[in-house]
Amino acid sequence: MGGSIGAVAHPPESASSHPGRGAGRPAQLTAPGWLIASGGVLAALLVGAMLVRDAPRGISLLAACVFLPLVLLELPVAFALWIPIAWNEFSHVFGKAPLGGVLLLLVAWIGTRRTASRGIAAASAPSVRFARVGFGLLLVWVTLSISWAGERGDAWFQVRQWLLAGAVFVLVIAIANTPARLRLIALAFIAGALVSIVIGLTGTGLSTTATALDLATRERFSGGAGDPNYLAAGLIAAIALAAGLMPSFRDPLAKLGLGAIVLALAAAMAATGSRGGIIAALFAVVAALIFARERRLATAAFAAFAGAALTIFLLLSPAAWARMTEVDAGGTGRTELWQVALRMADDHPIVGVGVGGFEHESKSYVLRPGNLTEVANIAEHPGVTHNVYLQQLAETGIVGALGLLAVFLACLTASQVAAGRFRARGDPAMAALASSAGVAIVGMLAASAFISNSTDKRLWIVLALGPALLVAASSPQAQPASTER
Fold it and tell me: What's the pTM value of the predicted model, to 2 decimals?
């Protein structure tokens, strides 16, 4: 942008440098203005006509008209605005916006990839390279598994989801390569959690399954995520990032605001009734105490604060408390699904049954001897394994499972290496954010033992924060962060 502005600011110099072309210079400068104005008028007419004919589509078109220029002018800001939409991907409120947004962002980044990739080149850490290359190889293997998948249609659909997740992963690493941008991405992730809660409170997120928050209801709160277990997994990461952002603000009101947000997120997580979410939260607390180092006391106090909020909500909600404390409180028959996944892996240990193949192949495994009690659910309504690790093992074999675990480990390692480098630079605020990113990764990976979220864009946003933080910490231009006043 700087070069184009400078050219417009000095037309006489440009004209004198090129004799014979000075007379035509003003026309060249004003033409883009006319084009922009004409395009704006045309867009306004189209939006107005669509609003009259179909209000929801008109609103979508209006949002697209606002989003497109932002993508071209401020890609990091546009990506941050897209993150709350990704949080609510399965909500009918946003329609196809999550898909269209990520494709538009990817095309815009490819167009400016030389500039956007400078930060990546600055990082020599093996974990950054390993995460990027490892994820690329994982995508290749998942794509190749189509050739031995039983249902090619389902396989292709899952591969497209993997490729979109890969696009998000690459975009975060490429775009969030400065401390300011990393804070922006973290804030956007937290904002996405709040938007999801609001959608759930109003009951408008999903046409059939979303329910408003009610202390007396027996329905589980799913927000805009469409599933209470998926919502809980994201909320754990959002709470961790909110904690990590606190040292970046000196203003007491800002800290108070983050504290209030944590209360809301903890209460919403309790309302999900997700036992897997509670287990994942415990893993996140342990990780926080390990990663925090010099801030262990503050971390323990923060964990107690969030835990108290969650406990108070559970005490006020008998139905949620009963589900959390009763082993037979209902569920999806996970143990049977896990047993079927292990049977598949035993039959196809190296390459698996092919991406997206668990749902198709699971019916043939319930006839084998064994203590399966939910045979009807598996045979008549087959679904996912509700465990990302077993799903990967069953569908892509040991090769795919080890590849996925390697990427997870590389991203987690990158976050903690980044925390150490920020500490060495004398930047405790960014060190806290890097440590909290590691906590968020641990929390989501622990929750993934109870859900099949391998292509969840929120998961890959959080994972990509590790390499992105290390890129920022490794940049020679990085300076110790000055906290907000």
Answer: 0.81
